[in-house]
Amino acid sequence: MLKNRIIPCLDVKNGRVVKGINFVDLKDAGNPVEQAKIYSDGGADEICFLDITASNENRDTIYDVVEKTSKKCFVPLTVGGGVRGVDDINKLLNCGADKVSINTAAVQNPEVIIESSKKFGSQCIVVAIDAKKNGNRWEVFTHGGRNNTSLDAIEFANKMEDSGAGELLVTSIDRDGTQIGYDNDLILKISSTVNIPVIASGGVGSLDHLVDGIKLGKASAVLAASIFHHGTHSIQEAKQYLDSKGIPVRI
Amino acid sequence: MNVTIVDYNSGNISSVINSFKEVAKNKVNIEVTSDLNKIKSSDKVVLPGQGSFKSCVDALNSINGLVEILNEFAVTNKKPLLGICVGLQMFADIGYEEIETKGLGWISGKVSKIDNQNNKFKLPHIGWNEISIVKESKIFKDIKNKSHMYFVHSYEFIPEDKSVISATTDYSSNIVCSVEKENIFGTQFHPEKSDKIGLQIIKNFIDL
What we know:
Strand order of the largest sheet of chain A: 1-3-4-5-6-9-10-11
Number of strands of chain A: 11
Distance between the termini of chain A: 13 Å
Order of helices and strands of chain A: EEHEHEHEHHEEEHEHEHEHH
Largest interface: A-B, 33 and 38 residues
Oligomer: heterodimer
Number of strands of chain B: 13
Shape of chain B: globular
Order of helices and strands of chain B: EHEHEHHEHEEEEEEEEEH
């Protein structure tokens, strides 16, 4: 039986780990390579790096981080943030990333998804959808949650599946950093619409939130940052908790 | 000893390289090349593969003489070869991804899309799944039955002769995830991404 995945995410800025609260107010807290190794030794099913300010700043630090991490961690490594096109994807994959997550570029130029999934295979193309609730719909945001595109998140998710995305990483901007749980309505809406795996993201503050993402949101995988990063819970604790709630996990 | 990872533009092979180097330490030489002479003279060959069946077969064929050298290595000389993911799938006679494409024909069978029961199961089959070991395989030394391996694929290899199957995994149906036919080994899952257990499989192959 296929297991639900737990994916710790490390937000990286200038080669250092930070975790934003609602994408601002960053707090420096560690070396990403060491942190990733702790996670993979602890049983993380995948590791995710998000280079949060990559669009604006010194980008090359992430390549070094990815290269070093991929020599120490032998679980899948996803890297996102500031990925503009095929060249960036190629460079990250060559450094040792297994998957690349694409956000702003997927909205601005969906051809990037078509082209890159053909070139590298859908298995390494993750489209990151940052969505915010507006009335009874969700709208897609880009540039780290700063720009509203007014695109409908559900329609966009469908379009990305058709374009060749292998997975969708769905983040609720309303919930990100709040620790009150995923927007499970959003997650469910997308996971029940598309036929590719959905990774729930944004808002985890407790282990029950991970359970909800899978049970209520029907996510294939759950992503969290601060509850693992601040040592509130270990990956093993999270897995045992999910297991105790009847969710299939790799222990 | 020389282990060669065939570099034929089959997509991202850096994780395969990293994992083999990690296991080999400095005791075994890991070559990453498409040089025909180096492949020919190596002791073991790893055939990775990502992307579609067609794109991998096309990439193999685009290097003049590569398929012949691989045939000589694995079929004539019967030296150990490990195919990973699409590397395994290419052992088949034929694949149906994108368009009907001829494979290497080393293990009779076909590669077709996983039947996901009218979208009841998501594709690709991504994540950690347990393997059921159905016959003893040299690459499963010290690997417990029901170990978790990392998968990412939408197509499956269906061999004609079921006796080549060394492990299966349970998804929308029972999927062949490992084969062994004499000196030819293949895994549908990614040992290079399957944590310590995956590295053990790589070690078992290097130690053959």
